[in-house]
Write a structure and sequence with these properties.
It is rod-shaped and about 140 Å long. It is built from 8 helices and 5 strands; from the N terminus they run βαβααβααβαβαα. By secondary structure, it is an alpha/beta fold.
Length: 209
């Protein structure tokens, strides 16, 4: 499918940007004059060409766009070139006389008073797309993945906060073995008296270990 022309009032840009993002998630290519007109191109000519070559013409209806002269002109060009016109009701409004005939008996996508995703499904079907479980499933899988990651992060954080650091064991150097006490003189064999450093019999020195 070629591009989808989006006709709207600048005052409805917030809704239109959300709509464009959602359509592009389904693989549609969109065209809006703010982003698509290159420098140096004639503004009216660029818009006329984009409308003539579009595969679908979405007109976003609201009190703001109903009073827009440019939106009415874009609709007239789409009607003249027999484009596939899809009115998108963003906000309840009275359709002006210069638009009413061109919009009569067309299939509408009603975003007014409906959840955005529900209205989007109907619009995608009207454009020939398939709002199937693949897209929704992707969203659900991502939501589940985000939930699991957040829960795991909380668990790890709580576990880390509760773990107390264990001090390393108090390792002390081993005490030296006690000095060996000799009972007899190694020189003369006489019995030694405790505490003496010389043998009282021969005068030989007594080793301490």
């Amino acid at each position: 499918m070629g591009h989808i022309f989006i006709s709207y009032s600048r005052k409805d840009s917030g809704f239109v940007h959300r709509l464009i993002g959602a359509l592009e998630n389904y693989g549609f290519s969109t065209w809006q004059d703010v982003n698509a007109i290159a420098g140096g191109e004639v503004w009216k000519g660029a818009i006329g060409k984009a409308v003539r070559e579009c595969d679908a013409f979405l007109i976003v209806l609201s009190p703001q766009s109903a009073g827009s002269e440019n939106v009415a002109k874009e609709l007239a060009v789409a009607t003249k070139h027999d484009r596939h016109i899809l009115p998108v009701m963003y906000q309840a409004c009275t359709i002006p006389d210069n638009m009413e005939y061109d919009l009569a008996e067309l299939q509408w996508a009603n975003f007014h008073g409906l959840p955005f995703d529900d209205a989007l499904d109907g619009l995608v079907r009207s454009l020939g797309g398939r709002p199937t479980v693949e897209i929704k499933g992707t969203r659900e899988v991502q939501a589940l993945r985000d939930f699991v990651v957040s829960q795991a992060s909380q668990f790890v954080g709580a576990f880390t906060a509760n773990v107390q650091s264990v001090p390393p064991p108090d390792v002390r150097p081993a005490d030296p073995p006690p000095a060996r006490v000799l009972d007899f003189c190694i020189h003369c064999g006489a019995k030694l008296h405790p505490g003496n450093v010389f043998c009282t019999s021969c005068g030989g020195s007594i080793p301490r270990s």
